Amino acid sequence: MVANILEEVIEDWGLAGRCMALTTDNACLAHVNNLAVQEAMGGVPEVEAPLKKLRNLASRIGFSVTKTAAFEKEQRHQFPGKQPLKLKQDNPVRWGSTHAMLRRAIELKGPIRAFVAREASDQQPAHRRPPCARPHSGTQRAACRQHTHLPSKRHSLPHAGYSSQCFLRLALP
């Protein structure tokens, strides 16, 4: 495809009989491709909005020791025996960095969802939280399991008596 375009340009400029070899700068071509992809993605709200959320999340976790520790704890909980990974942050001048950021986010989808759900729940005052986000009594626990199909095993969270499945249910309909 690129070769066809180059042939057309050579013919249009009248260089067809004068060229013996053609040398290109692959770095320049990759840079132009990167700029074109960024420009195309930047104008589409359905693409830009989720990217912005992911960038903000990566920044919030990366710049906070407490949030980094909580995110790593969530990874150890969901992936026992695996070394926790950091979210990647894209950089407009680094080719392929958005792809790398998205690939890592997909790899860490479960821990990201749990972290975001817990973070959202922790920001609400206790009296305004839905029943599943408050400490469980026996009756509340049974009702929560009934409408969300939760397993009976509970997970330890920063607030005793909370179930991570309840948090996920609140964040992910």
Description:
The protein is mainly alpha-helical. It is built from 8 helices and no strands. The protein has helices spanning 2-12, 26-42, 45-62, 65-78, 97-107, 109-122, 138-148, 164-171. The longest helix has 18 residues, at 45-62. It is elongated. 16% of the residues are buried.
Can I get a quick summary?
This protein is mainly α and 173 residues long. Helices cover 60% and strands 0% of the residues. The protein is elongated and about 75 Å long.
Which labels suit this protein?
173 residues, mainly alpha, 8 helices, 60% helix, 0% strand, disordered C terminus
Q: What is the beta-strand fraction? A: under 5%
Number of strands: 0
**Overall geometry:** elongated
Query: What series of H and E elements makes up the topology?
Result: HHHHHHHH
Low-confidence blocks of residues: 145-173
From the alpha carbons, calculate the radius of gyration and give it in angstroms.
25 Å
Share of helix among residues? Answer: 55-70%
**What is the first-to-last residue Cα distance?**
45 Å
What would you call the structural class?
mainly alpha
The average pLDDT value, as a whole number, equals 76
Task: Name the quaternary structure.
Answer: single chain
User: What's the helix count?
Assistant: 8
Main beta sheet: strand number and arrangement?
none
